[in-house]
Amino acid sequence: MSGARGGPQPGDGAMNAAMRPFPAAAGEALRDTRLRANLAGATHTIREKRNRVVAEVPDWPQLREAGRAIKVEVLAHLDTYLEAFEQAVTDAGGHVHWAPDAAAANQVVLDVARAHQVSEIVKVKSLTTDEIGLNDALAAGGVHAIETDLAELILQLDGDWSSHILVPAIHLNRTEIRDLFRATIADPSLGDDPRELAEASRRYLRERFLTARMAVSGANFGVADSGTVCVVESEGNGRMCTTLPPVLVTILGIEKLVPTFGDLEVFLQLLPRSSTGERMNPYTSLWTGVTPGDGPQEFHVVLLDGGRTRVLADQVGRQALHCIRCSACLNVCPVYSRTGGHAYGSIYPGPIGAILTPQLYGIEAAPTLPFASSLCGACYEVCPVMIDIPSVLLHLREKAVAAGAKPGERLAMKAVSWIFGGRRRFAAAARLGRLGQRPLVRRGRIVRLPAPLAAWTRTRDLRPLSSESFRDWWERRR
Amino acid sequence: MNGSRELILGRVRDALGDAGEAEALPPRAYRRQGTLEPAARIELLCERIGDYQAQVRRVGAAELAVAIGEAFAAEGAARVCVPGGIPPQWRPEGVELVVDAPLTLEELDGVDGVLTGCTLAIAETGTIVLSAGPAEGRRALTLVPDLHVCVVGEDQVVETVPEAMAPLAKLVRAERRPITFISGPSATSDIELSRVEGVHGPRRLIVLIVNKELQ
Question: What is the ipTM of this complex?
Answer without folding.
Answer: 0.95
